[in-house]
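Hi support team,

I submitted a single chain yesterday and got back a structure, but I'm not sure I'm reading the token output correctly. Could someone confirm the output below corresponds to the sequence I sent? I've pasted both exactly as they appear in my results page.

Thanks,
R.
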Amino acid sequence: MARANLDAVVATIDSLLLAAYDADQMPAAIERMRQLFDGSKACFARVGPDLGPNDAVATNPDATMQQRFCSDLGEEFSAFSQELSRLPVGKAYIDREFFGSDRLRSSRFWREWMAPQDMYCGLGSRLAEAGPSFWFFDVQRGRNQEAFDAEDTALLERLAPIMTRVAELRRHIGFLTMQRDMARAALDRLTVGIAIVDPQLRLVYANEIAGQLLAEPESALGLRTGRVFARNAQDQAALKRLIVQALVPIHEAGSGRIHLLARAAGAEGCNLSLCLLPVPPSYGLPSASPCAMIAIRPLQAAADLVLAAQQLFGLTETEAKFASALASGLSLAEAAAEQHVRISTARTHLARIFQKTGMRQQSQIAALLRGAELPVRPRYEPS
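Hi R., thanks for writing in. Yes, this is the structure output for that exact sequence:
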């Protein structure tokens, strides 16, 4: 083989391998194959059930002809494809020799599909199979070109294993892409934000809620030059430290789930409850570094102090009413009168409040409820 031809083969192989991982590169790879074989047309396609527009990649596609094929010539092609399905994978063929020149030229498929597109001599190979489907490559030469010969056939058979790998990778990656899209759609329906970051807090993925929270100017978290950051300086230092801690290998001390309350940057923002945990490397994320997931829940100031006290400290409704009354500035006697109970009963309730909150003084109870802003997670009603 001449040096120029060898360079063309190497460039074509590089293009095919690139296309195996990036579907957008597939048309360019098939165009290189057409040029390598000096063809008028080339196609890489799947034959089988539930065909869609992504199952065939052709050079210089003609939308009108493609529509004609789908609506009117499918059965004509099916008869030939059934014979192709019996060919060994990787075996090259010349169409007019395999199907018979007279039979092929007399078919409606050749007259209405192939001849109008200057497809007068085809060289092809069946590349892979999976269930009821198989993949093939076909390159054609036109009316005024020389027919393919034994050297062309040998070259295609040398390239066939690479194209087989391309077909297998495309099928596998297509399945993974479908799984990824389904997973992303499911994550976008959650009412909790999910962000995945690398050790430098570079954002690798964010679901819809996380994206909204990171874009909010007064949110506790933001996104700057592709990195997640906490707007409060103390929270930022804690976030960096906890990301490192979350990425400690699971068998070592200090690993596992970690929580952080990130404070809002402004009056219109809200505090965020963050839960950090490591992402297993088997997730196949694009980042080469280990990653951590941050689950983000908005926290709202409690409009109902009684309900908040019940949620935060496990108080009964009566105990929570006493705690709320004390937080509003009432004395124990005034709180007892407001609740229409004796002072001795009020002292019993206060003792239970002390026990459940860990406080020892009435003033501490008031400060606890007034000063902590009582952030609580919003309760979402099932839709």
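A quick pointer for reading it: The longest helix spans residues 150-188. Let us know if anything else looks off.

Best,
Support desk
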